[in-house]
Design brief:
With about 250 residues, this protein is of the alpha/beta class. The chain contains six helices and eight strands. Strands 2-1-3-4-6-8 form a six-stranded parallel β-sheet, sandwiched between helices. A two-stranded parallel ribbon has the order 5-7. Helix 3 links the parallel strand 1 and strand 2. The radius of gyration is 18 Å and the shape is globular.
Length: about 250
């Protein structure tokens, strides 16, 4: 048993260093997803308490869900690109936490290069400034502002901007609006496991899926589909001063 566990650890380390996908991730990506597909991306060193709980809830919502490490994102982009246009694929949802949120943006940008749309991008505590690619129909960026230490380039979440006006972007500061009654539970390291945050994510995802199915029934998906606004309070007036997007995309090997 120990030797098998050691072998799995070695395999995982090799895959993460190479940018390929782990075998169990490949299994998820090979599974048809007519009801939609969700990719959940962990943070640094795989940290994302509550990731599996969220994945199970996304599965229950009808999505084929894979939880991945950030280093797997280039391989996932390649796999999704190779299956693009398949009749068995529903809407695509991508969720990322902390550094995994930045990797989620890079994954979307890699898919944009191949002309693949992302129906919902959900970010939790994205620590580095970036812009949301134009192939993302809707993005919900969840974070908790911390005025006293947001200047630190780590362990924080920041408001973001979209590259294109066609992206419906909501910056949700839980300190100011929908979850402000629970401020003590929302540190950078615990916000991703909070059930209220998971409820918020599921509400967004289910709403997007319902709109997707309605548009599909009405034959409205022949052109580009863009979901309507959700229930979130959009943060306005994000200062442009000092805004420096961190660009970059994974490269398929």
């Amino acid at each position: 048993m120990r030797s098998q566990l050691a072998s799995l650890c070695v395999l995982a380390a090799a895959v993460l260093c190479s940018g390929c996908v782990l075998p169990w991730t490949a299994t998820h990506l090979d599974t048809p997803a007519p009801g939609g597909r969700a990719i959940v991306i962990r943070g640094l060193c795989g940290y994302f308490p509550g990731a599996m709980h969220l994945a199970h809830r996304l599965d229950d919502a009808g999505l084929e869900t894979a939880v991945i490490f950030g280093k797997e994102a280039p391989g996932v982009a390649c796999a999704l690109s190779s299956t693009a246009g398949g009749c068995d694929e529903g809407p695509l949802v991508i969720v990322g936490y902390s550094l995994g949120a930045n990797e989620a943006i890079h994954l979307c940008r890699a898919l944009e290069d191949d002309g693949i749309p992302v129906d919902s991008l959900i970010l939790i505590e994205c620590p580095y400034r970036d812009t949301i690619p134009s192939n993302v129909a809707r993005c919900v960026n969840i974070y908790r502002s911390r005025p006293g230490k947001d200047w630190l380039p780590m362990f924080r979440g920041l408001p973001l901007r979209a590259e294109d006006g066609g992206t419906d972007l909501s910056n949700v500061d839980v300190r100011r609006n929908c979850l402000r009654h629970e401020p003590l539970t929302h540190s950078h390291f615990t916000i991703c496991a909070d059930r209220s945050i998971h409820d918020l994510i599921l509400s967004e995802v289910v709403g997007s899926l319902d709109e997707y199915e309605a548009a599909l029934d009405e034959g409205a998906l022949e052109g580009e589909w863009s979901p309507g606004e959700g229930e979130w309070m959009i943060e306005e007036g994000i200062p442009a001063e000092g805004f420096q997007p961190m660009l970059g995309a994974p490269c398929c090997q």
